[in-house]
């Protein structure tokens, strides 16, 4: 008879996993003569590998180990990289409160890790205390959704036009995040001489920045672990006022309302106003109405002069000022004749080129004589055909009057 081998698992002084064996049970010598397959059947076997598991940080992880024919052997869970024993059979060895154990009919052994952290990433071993030891390993992958590192990322920026600017975005996460920049409004912009929609990388560098670059930019970090994250950085570009005038010469007639217009661009926002040619500031009121429409760094200045009089025909100045400078433009208002009402007198000399004759014998009755019959008569009608054709083809808004000549011939 031979003694049967039993194994025990314990920690040595350096907290490494040590499996020791002892012989205290005799087994028949006939076992020596068993075929290898028969000997293998006396030991536990793993039904399947320990599957690799991927978990997002903060969630719970479950590692499974399925063993058949365990008999009197014991199952242990070990953290491979640190050689830390987590559990032996039904007992939790580790002091980590996030780790627990469950099992099913001494066949399935489950290692539970709650609120997984990045430090939990690594290999885990399920081992059985046979001689030699049998084991299976599974990898716990802990992924982390991206996060923007605020203290290493640019905030809103104000720069002068024509300078170079670099916006920086730093992100953390596992796997390492991919970082890109784009405008919040989705518009293309010029970067290093090229018109682009997206710039890859943590740094967005713009050479000789212009007012067209002004706006909000998004730094977007993603690594396949939802959700992606973004940070908004507003770029403001300072420049002195610039002014354009759609019409430098306007015209109106006395009594008309007229509107003058100037377009300005500036940042910081400019102070805008109108003056007369004498330099007097124009205040909005009954006579003058001023309006200002904002569109980002662009503005439209409008001055409406109501019921223009002869003394209003002069020059008007639009002015824009900010901390970086000032500009102005001049618009001249000239007089034009007032539109007059068009009247047309048609002098008509009737001619009789065509004769439409119809002889209708009728009785002439005198209404004042109680319908007393006076005598017979014929009616002949004459029309001006040339005048009718002229009137039908004319597009003039002035209408004339057609004429017909009716001749009454009394019959004797």
TrEMBL record:
PROSITE patterns linked: IG_LIKE (PS50835)
Pfam families linked to this entry: I-set (PF07679), Ig_3 (PF13927)
Location of the protein in the cell: Cell membrane
Alphabetically ordered keywords of this record: Cell membrane, Disulfide bond, Glycoprotein, Immunoglobulin domain, Membrane, Repeat, Signal
GO annotation, cellular component aspect: neuron projection; plasma membrane
Keyword field contains Lipoprotein: no
Keyword Disulfide bond annotated: yes
Residue stretches making up the Ig-like domain: 44-145, 146-230, 240-343
Protein name in the entry: (African queen) hypothetical protein
Organism: Danaus chrysippus (African queen)
